[in-house]
Sequence to fold (180 residues):
Amino acid sequence: MKGRHSFRPFIAGGLPMAINAYTHLKDTKVPVFITLYTAFLIYLDDVLCHNLDAVSEFNERLTTGKVQKDFMLDHFATLINEFSQHFPRIVYNIMLSSTMNFVTALLLEKETEEATIHRGATGYPTLVRSMSGASEVFALAIFPPCVPVINYVQVLPELVIFINNGKYVNSRFMKRRASA
Fold:
């Protein structure tokens, strides 16, 4: 938590997510997981600027069990693997895929930051947003692990759309309030 490589600033970014959406799960480890998970997503985005190599190899190293090229990414891999002990198998698998898509989206955004989006590529921004939101993780974590997956999996697409669009809607709302 201390020193040049402190994780503390990133936790401050993850805490509001857990407090605002997961307090109904206070008898579980989910709020702590969400705090740390969100903090790691912020960390990954930050590390990408300084160590593209470590982030670009994260998914491969995660799936093969190799040590990550950044010691904090090892901790992130451990956290992701710990999800398997607290969520149903199908839920964990979707969370894992969503996390890997997030990392891929970071790399895609970096690779294409100078690209011009073609007029006909109308679905491309939605694709990148759906990959970069890790929305499935945040949506599925809402449900207590004791609730059968069949009871909520069919609403996952709507939850993902809501989560992916929430940032845009909230920023527009806040701008309107500030100018009023």
About this structure: Residues 168-180 have pLDDT under 50 and may be disordered.
